[in-house]
Amino acid sequence: MKEYKEYLDFEKPILKLTEKIEEAKKLGKEDKIKKLEIALLKTKKKIFEKLTPWQRVLLARHPQRPYSLDYIDRITEDFIELHGDRRYGDDPAIVAGLGKIEEINCVIIGQQKGREIKEKLKRNFGMPHPEGYRKALRVMKLAEKFNLPIISFVDTPGAFPGIGAEERGQAWAIAENIKEMSLLSVPIVVVIIGEGGSGGALAIAIGNRVLMMENAIYSVISPEGCASILWRDGSKAEKAAEMLRLTAYELLQFGIIDEIVREPLGGAHQNWEEAAKILKEAILRNLEELLKKDKETILKERIEKFRKMGTNL
Asked: pLDDT tens for residues 20-59?
């Protein structure tokens, strides 16, 4: 894991205690170290037990939060990435390929953000073009052909809204993915690991099981976009985040997701290895349950799942 360097404003008390612990270690003050570590644990619990929706938005976007490839590297074996949509080109904002989780062969797709400036530009900040969605669909159809389950990692602020993307059929690509994913007869496990933004997320999120990391968000629009529309003031994003009901706990109540995946204390960005371990267990458990079902049941349950959404609000 890369060294954790950035702290959000509400994490500053954690930073101060961490610095004090490092200083005490240099001086070899064992008693002081133990007291500070206890204080650090209490501080983390106090902060992360009462996070606001906006604070979870900030955590979902945290620059040190693990991305799709970070989880793929830690959860899967023998991952082979496939490229191109066979129509226009390859879109690095979406990774797709074949891999193995324990003894289960599967197809894996995910939206990938960049961490450094050069990679951010290459990955288009995790905003896919239509060729990215077509690549994902091409690989998912391979899963159908070879009877392999699908794992989908969702992490995007939304589909790219540029002129070129629109000219190449962005809306069509999203709609086609939603339709085709609905009709696949293999098990699909979706995980929202960071941002789940609008149709850009939904295009690879039609699953039998939809899991969501504890500090991820999932919404029809960003808080900034919502604030700009409702109040013509993007600075009211914090208020919009509360109204959008975009946190995992709220979405579980609404039946939009099926399970919340716990994160290490302090967030997934604090401990990539632990976050990946917890997520792997959740994916495997759901996969094993789904693989016991026949194709007709898999297809029927997925369609019924999405048809029921909104009926219990």
From this structure: 888 888 877 778 888 888 998 999 999 998 899 999 999 9
Span 168-176, average pLDDT: 96
- What 3 state SS string does 89-125 have? CCCCCEEEEEEEECCEEEEEEEECCCCCHHHHHHCHH
Contact 194, 213 (CB under 8 A): yes
Q: Which residues contact 154 (CB under 8 A, 6 or more apart)?
A: 110, 111, 190, 191, 192, 193, 194, 196, 201, 204, 205, 218
Structural tokens at position 80: 């082979």
Angle at 180 between CA 160 and CA 134, to 5 degrees: 40
pLDDT tens per residue, range 62-115: 999 999 999 999 999 999 999 999 999 999 999 999 999 999 999 999 999 999
Q: Which residues pair with residue 111 across a beta bridge?
A: 94
Walk me through the domains of the chain, giving residue ranges and CATH numbers.
9-50 (no CATH), 55-308 (3.90.226.10)
pLDDT tens digits along 236-268:
999 999 999 999 999 999 999 999 999 999 999
Q: Which two tokens stand for residue 230?
A: 């409702």
| Residue 206 neighbours by CB distance under 10 Å | 22
Distances (CA, A) of 139 to 13, 214, 228: 45, 28, 37
Distance separating alpha carbons of residues 277 and 66, to the nearest angstrom: 13
88 Ramachandran zone, left/alpha/beta (phi>0; psi -120 to 50):
alpha
